[in-house]
Amino acid sequence: MGWKTLAPALQKFFALPIEEDTKASITRIFQIFESLCQPPDTTQAVPQTESEQMVVCQQLAEILFNTLVRWDQRPPLQRYSYQATKENREELVVSMFRSFHKLQRQDLLLHFLGHALEYPKQNDLREVLVPAAKQLYLDMLDSTDDAEGYIHLLNVCIEKLQWLTRKPPAEPKSWTQNIKLRCNCSDCTTLQTFLHDPEQQVIRFKMAKSYRRHLHQIIDSHECDLDHVTERKGSPYTLVCTKNRTTYKNKCRIYQEGLQRLEKLQELSNSITGEGYEADAPSSTPSIFSPGQSVIVKKGLSVPDDPTIAMGGWRGRISTFVKNNIDNDTLVEIEWDSLTLEQLPEEFLQTSVNEELDWARMVLTTDDIAPCQPRDTKVAAIKTRKKLKKKFG
């Protein structure tokens, strides 16, 4: 049965109003669609053409994206129903990007990113988009496809994080808490006055257990920045409420986490795009080499185990440093870049494999190398290593 024959049934399935079914799983629907986008099985008795599959899946992609929009537009009572299936939104985003990327539907990916910004509760930056971007980056390392769709997601996350971390949280200048309590009883009125007071930090309520329980519940339900404990002295006991800086501390924690995520995503983005890289551009010599720095082997040097192979001009990135206790100097482990890997002699590669030597990296002294500008990306080097390893082992 061909794709054209199955198309009407598939279109009907993916167009179903699943947003009306509280037990439906939108993540599972996307995972099913991802499996449909896999390359055709050429071992089948009746070969399926990739062009037919692409045409049908292209149509299904638009239908499924519209289904996702309707899903996120559901009213809160339906989204948070106790019957609703718990969704893993990160898996949904990853599955959708994989599928739409295979179909070369960058337009739908861009539409989704706009949709995600419009519905941030369903597509939380920290819990959904950033983890999905990291997972898709790992996918990209194992793929030979371009990374345009992934870069779009990375850029959205980076721009959002840049906005959220544009300045650190302002430290409170007073002890005022702008919280409006929903209860108007006399005790809550007193508590409300205390919360709005810019200087008072502690208040004591000497009252019966039922009244103390009521204030405990009010404080917790309104998420007041208060430590509230019962002082078990005298009769009745006393509820002691002390203001704290929990909200401010949480904002500082989130701010620091945002900076860390931003730094990591910028590093991933640069490794994909090679932003700022200039081949053969001059570089000032640093006083100390550092991990990740691009270096070039000085002229006149040859492979230590084979003097017939000149290695002057080979380039790579410093991966780690090794202390040479005998000569009391520092050795540098270098991972070759993609251009150097492509130019390695086949005889050298085969000999290295036979002798169980690592041809993708080499340990040299700091006197053997000089700093230079990178001429490729880390991702390009990783992909080239995988390609050569598949060929030579």
Could you describe the 3D structure shown?
With 393 residues, this protein is an alpha+beta fold. 49% of the residues lie in helices and 14% in strands. The protein has helices at 3-14, 26-36, 50-72, 76-79, 89-102, 106-118, 125-141, 148-164, 186-196, 209-221, 246-273, 338-343, 346-354, 378-392; strands spanning 202-206, 226-231, 238-243, 294-297, 302-303, 306-310, 315-324, 329-336, 361-365, 369-371. The strands form 3 sheets. Strands 9-8-7-4-10 form a 5-stranded antiparallel sheet. Strand 5 and strand 6 form a beta hairpin. Helix 2 (26-36) packs antiparallel against helix 3 and helix 7 packs antiparallel against helix 8. The longest helix has 28 residues, at 246-273. The two termini are 40 Å apart. The model is unreliable at 275-287 (pLDDT under 50).
Give a summary of the structure in a few sentences.
The chain is of the alpha+beta class and 393 residues long. Helices cover 49% and strands 14% of the residues. The strands form 3 sheets. Strands 9-8-7-4-10 form a 5-stranded antiparallel sheet. It has a 3-stranded antiparallel sheet with strand order 1-3-2, covered by helices on one side.
What amount of the residues lies in strands? 5-15%
Q: Mean pLDDT, rounded to whole units?
A: 83
Distance between the termini: 40 Å
Helix/strand class: alpha+beta
Number of strands: 10
**Largest sheet strand order:** 9-8-7-4-10
Q: What order do the SSEs take from the amino end to the carboxyl end, as H and E?
A: HHHHHHHHHEHEEHEEEEEHHEEH
Residue share in helix: 40-55%
Largest sheet: 5 strands, antiparallel
Radius of gyration: 30 Å
> What gross morphology would you assign?
flat
The helix tally amounts to: 14
Low-confidence sequence ranges: 275-287
